[in-house]
TrEMBL record:
InterPro entries: MORN_2. Residues 158-192 are annotated as: Disordered. This is MORN repeat variant. The keyword Signal applies. Keywords: Signal. Residues 1-17 form the signal peptide.
Length: 192
């Protein structure tokens, strides 16, 4: 009986130790690997937040969640090779969704290219290595919601807005958004 109790206690400690995931780890090459939590402090009036997700070879991979300092979800973004690529969701402070759509990776962060640079004085050609910065663009249908639940659909083709529909009407026939109404009033006032 004592051996059984001892085995059960040892098993519990082993399970507890295995269940505690060690986050924020780097490999032998000092690259971020595995589960990671990043604290971003408030700066220049912008509130701080917490990022949570997985790193693979120093690049964000899969779904990353962004939380307010109070623990409320602000965003869920999908990364591939450290760049936004896939489904993204953004939330209002009350938890309601504010936007949902897909991002498309246009360039991979850290990708290296070799280009020929010609010296303008001597005309000599030199090979130079250039490191790209990764970036993403909206692609496909995006649904954008007001806090009261009114939805606007926007369709993007590799970052270019190709169609916008508010409710069931094209965006051009829909009532102006608040910032558009203020802009129109300024223009009208300037003509008088």
């Amino acid at each position: 009986m004592k051996k059984l109790c001892f085995l059960i206690i040892c098993s519990c400690f082993a399970l507890l130790a295995a269940g505690q995931t060690t986050g924020n780890q780097t490999d032998a090459k000092n690259r971020k690997q595995g589960p990671w939590v990043e604290q971003v402090p408030s700066i220049r009036g912008e509130p701080g937040y917490t990022w949570e997700g997985i790193y693979k070879n120093d690049r964000k991979e899969g779904v990353w969640k962004k939380y307010t300092t109070d623990g409320d979800v602000m965003a869920e973004e999908t990364f591939k090779n450290g760049v936004l690529d896939g489904l993204c969701k953004y939330f209002y402070p009350n938890g309601k969704i504010s936007a949902i759509g897909n991002m498309l990776s246009v360039d991979i962060d850290g990708q290296k290219d070799t280009i020929v640079v010609i010296d303008p004085v001597s005309g000599q050609e030199n090979l130079t290595e250039v490191t790209r910065k990764g970036y993403s663009v909206k692609h496909g249908e995006w649904k954008v919601y007001d806090e009261d639940g009114t939805m606007m659909r926007e369709t993007y083709d590799k970052g270019e807005l190709s169609n916008s529909v508010m409710g069931n009407r094209p965006r051009s026939q829909a009532a102006p958004l608040p910032h558009e109404a203020a802009e129109a009033a300024k223009k009208k006032k300037g003509k008088n």
